[in-house]
C-alpha cells in the first residue's frame, strides 16, 4: 500500500492562496495554485526546496485565488510542473493572469514574473474533459463544480481510496451553469466553506434577482444611472444574461447596459466556450437567432472618459468588484454627487476596500488623492457564486462512501463541524498541517 498524504500550504482558515499538495511514493499533485489579493499579495507557504518535488498541478477554475501562483512557479529555477485544466479555465486564466501581471507592475516594487511566464503557463496547460479519467501521477476524473464556466472538482485515486477536491462550488442552476455534480464517491472530501457560517443562509437566486431588477427599475424611472461593480469572471456574465432576459421580457425598463473593464473579454470567452455551459443556454443559441451574449442591449463605452455613457439613464457593469481600481472608480467619480444615481454592491467586500467602506455607510471617501462626498444611493444585494451553508451540508452528506471531511477555503468552516461530526471525521486544517490519507 502506498503511503499518501496531503499538506495544506494555503487556502485554509481563509479565502485565498488555495494550495494543497498530494504526495505518495514520489508522486505529486498540487490541488490549485492560488494567491491572496488584499492590500498586499500573499502566496502559499510552499518551502523553496519543495518546488522541485511538485510534478503536477490541477487548477479547479480560473479565479486568481486558485490560479494566480502558476506564473510564480514558472519563474522559479525548477522543472515547472504540468498543469491540468479544462479548456474554459485555461482561456479565462489567460485574461486573469494578464490582468494580475498589470496589477503587479502597478503595485509591487519587484516583479516576480513577466509576460513570458504567463505565456508558458498557457502553453503548458494540458486540457482535460469532464468525466474522462486522465493520469497526473494519480488517476484523476473531473466533475462539474457549478461555480464559473469550466470550474471542476477533481476526484483523485490516492492511497487506495478516493479523494474529492471541490475547488469553489455552487449547487444552483443558473442561466449559464448547472449546479455541481452530487453523489460523487470519495472517502476523503476537501470542500470549500466560504459560506459555512451559522448565518450564511442566502436568499434564493430568484429572490435576489427580483430585488436587483426592482432596484434598477426604481433608479432608471427616476432618471438615474446604476453602477454595479463586479469581478470580471463569473457573476458578471450571469448578471448580464439575467438583465438581458428581464429587459427582453419587459420586466426591466429598457436602457443601455454598458459592459466595461475585463468583463467584455471574459464574456467573449464564455461565448466561445458555450459548449461547457448549461443545456438551456446552448439550446437557446442553437434554436433562435438572438444570441444573449451579443444582445442589442449591451454596449461598450467609446471614449476614455466614458462621457458617451451618460447621454441617457443606463446600467453599468464594470470591474473592479471591490472598487479597488478599474473603470468602476471613473464611474463613481462621475456619479457620486447625484442622489438619483445608485451603486449596487453584489459581491463580497474584503476588509479595507473602498467597497467595504461604502457598504458600512461611509459618505466621505477618497478616490486616489481626492476626497468625495457620496450623495448617490448605495444598496447591497448579495448575488453569490458559492454554495450557502445548507447547500454545503447537503452536498457533503450526499457524497458516497464519505469518511473524512476537510473544510477549507473559508473563515467559518468550523461552524459546520457540529452538523457533520456524528457522521464523519471533520477536519478544519491550519496552514502547513499534514494528514495521512
Ligand atoms: Zn472562485
Ligand atoms: Zn475561491
Unique ligands: zinc ion
What percentage of the residues does DSSP assign to strands (E)? Answer: 15-25%
* Shape descriptor: globular
Terminal-residue CA separation: 11 Å
Can you describe what's shown?
- The protein folds into 2 domains: 4-198 and 385-436, Ribonuclease Z/Hydroxyacylglutathione hydrolase-like (Metallo-beta-lactamase, Chain A); 205-380, Rossmann fold.
- The protein has 12 helices and 24 strands.
- The mean pLDDT is 95.
- It has 437 residues and is of the alpha/beta class.
- It has helices at residues 64-67, 70-74, 87-107, 115-123, 205-221, 235-249, 263-272, 279-287, 327-335, 354-359, 389-398, 417-420; strands spanning 4-10, 19-24, 27-31, 36-37, 41-42, 56-58, 82-85, 125-127, 134-136, 138-144, 152-158, 161-165, 188-192, 226-229, 257-259, 298-299, 315-318, 342-345, 364-367, 370-373, 377-380, 404-408, 425-427, 434-436.
- The N and C termini lie close together (11 Å).
- The chain is globular.
- A 7-stranded mixed β-sheet has the order 8-7-6-3-2-1-24. A 7-stranded mixed β-sheet has the order 9-10-11-12-13-22-23, with no helix packed on it. A 6-stranded parallel β-sheet has the order 16-15-17-14-18-21, with helices on both faces.
- Bound molecules: zinc ion (ZN) (2 copies).
- Residues 63, 65-66, 168, 409 line the site of one zinc ion.
- One zinc ion is lined by residues 63, 65-66, 168, 409.
Amino acid at each position: 500500500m502506498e503511503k499518501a498524504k496531503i499538506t495544506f500550504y494555503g487556502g485554509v482558515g481563509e479565502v485565498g492562496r488555495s494550495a494543497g499538495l498530494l504526495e505518495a511514493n514520489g508522486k505529486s499533485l498540487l490541488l490549485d495554485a492560488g494567491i491572496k489579493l488584499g492590500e498586499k499579495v500573499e502566496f502559499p507557504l510552499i518551502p523553496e526546496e519543495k518546488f522541485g518535488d511538485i510534478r503536477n498541478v490541477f487548477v479547479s477554475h480560473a479565479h486568481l485565488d486558485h490560479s494566480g501562483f502558476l506564473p510564480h512557479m514558472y519563474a522559479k529555477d525548477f522543472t515547472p510542473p504540468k498543469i491540468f485544466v479544462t479548456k474554459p479555465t485555461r482561456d479565462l486564466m489567460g485574461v486573469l493572469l494578464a490582468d494580475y501581471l498589470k496589477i503587479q507592475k502597478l503595485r509591487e516594487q519587484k516583479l516576480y514574473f513577466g509576460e513570458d511566464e504567463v505565456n508558458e503557463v498557457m502553453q503548458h496547460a494540458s486540457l482535460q474533459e469532464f468525466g474522462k479519467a486522465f493520469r497526473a501521477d494519480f488517476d484523476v476524473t473531473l466533475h462539474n463544480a457549478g461555480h464559473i464556466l469550466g470550474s471542476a472538482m477533481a476526484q483523485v485515486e490516492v492511497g487506495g481510496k478516493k479523494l474529492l477536491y471541490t475547488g469553489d462550488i455552487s449547487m444552483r442552476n443558473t442561466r449559464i451553469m448547472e449546479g455541481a455534480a452530487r453523489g460523487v464517491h470519495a472517502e476523503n472530501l476537501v470542500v470549500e466553506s466560504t459560506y459555512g457560517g451559522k448565518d450564511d443562509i442566502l436568499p434564493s437566486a430568484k429572490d435576489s434577482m427580483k430585488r436587483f431588477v426592482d432596484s434598477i427599475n426604481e433608479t432608471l424611472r427616476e432618471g438615474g444611472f446604476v453602477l454595479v461593480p463586479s469581478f470580471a469572471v463569473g457573476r458578471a456574465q450571469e448578471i448580464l444574461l439575467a438583465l438581458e432576459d428581464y429587459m427582453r421580457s419587459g420586466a426591466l425598463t429598457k436602457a443601455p447596459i454598458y459592459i466595461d473593464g475585463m468583463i467584455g473579454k471574459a464574456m467573449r470567452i464564455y461565448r466561445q466556450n458555450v459548449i461547457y455551459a448549461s443545456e438551456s443556454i446552448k439550446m437557446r443559441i442553437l434554436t433562435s437567432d438572438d444570441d444573449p451574449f451579443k444582445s442589442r442591449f449591451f454596449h461598450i463605452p467609446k471614449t476614455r472618459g466614458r462621457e458617451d455613457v451618460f447621454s441617457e439613464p443606463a446600467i453599468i457593469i464594470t470591474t473592479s468588484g471591490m472598487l479597488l481600481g478599474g473603470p468602476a472608480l471613473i464611474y463613481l467619480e462621475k456619479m457620486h454627487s447625484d442622489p438619483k444615481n445608485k451603486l449596487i454592491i453584489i459581491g463580497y467586500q474584503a476588509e479595507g476596500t473602498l467597497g467595504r467602506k461604502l457598504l458600512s455607510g461611509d459618505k466621505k471617501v477618497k478616490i486616489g488623492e481626492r476626497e468625495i462626498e457620496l450623495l448617490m444611493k448605495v444598496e447591497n444585494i448579495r448575488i453569490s457564486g458559492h454554495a450557502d451553508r445548507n447547500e454545503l451540508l447537503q452536498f457533503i452528506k450526499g457524497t458516497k462512501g464519505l469518511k473524512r471531511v476537510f473544510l477549507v477555503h473559508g473563515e467559518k468552516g468550523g461552524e459546520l463541524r457540529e452538523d457533520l461530526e456524528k457522521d464523519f471525521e471533520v477536519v478544519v486544517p491550519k496552514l502547513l498541517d499534514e494528514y495521512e490519507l
